TrEMBL record:
InterPro entries given in the database record: Chemokine_IL8-like_dom, Interleukin_8-like_sf
Cellular component terms (Gene Ontology): extracellular space
UniProt keyword Kinase, yes or no: no
Residue stretches making up the Chemokine interleukin-8-like domain: 5-62
Name of this protein: Chemokine CCL-CUb
GO molecular function, one term: chemokine activity
Region described as Disordered: 75-102
Length: 102
């Protein structure tokens, strides 16, 4: 995948290592940004194609794991807004940016 410089995801990957996610957010299309699901992991953040069938399953797994970890009275904070940090964005697995988006 080509390396891109932008404050948001400008390219997406179809695949991601099978590692647990610690959060996610949806980025809407706003040129040069592309529509993406940004998965947050211990290894950084990854820009993923939201149309991949495994993405929804990964999000469901995340919510199920949260249900097992939190009490019914506490609610998780999940961002759904676009990325606005100053960052270098990759669709691969390299980290060379300020907000660690891949």
């Amino acid at each position: 995948d080509a390396e891109k410089v932008s404050p948001c995801c400008v390219a997406v990957s179809r695949y991601m290592e099978n590692i647990p996610i610690t959060g996610y957010r949806l980025q809407e299309r706003n040129i040069p940004c592309v529509r993406a699901v940004i998965f947050k992991t211990e290894k950084g953040q990854f820009c993923i194609d939201p149309n991949q069938p495994w993405v929804k399953r990964k999000i469901i797994e995340f919510w199920k794991s949260l249900k097992n970890k939190i009490s019914p009275t506490s609610a998780p904070l999940i961002q759904t807004s676009s990325a606005t940090e100053n960052s270098t964005v990759h669709s691969g697995g390299k980290t060379t940016n300020h907000s660690s988006l891949h």
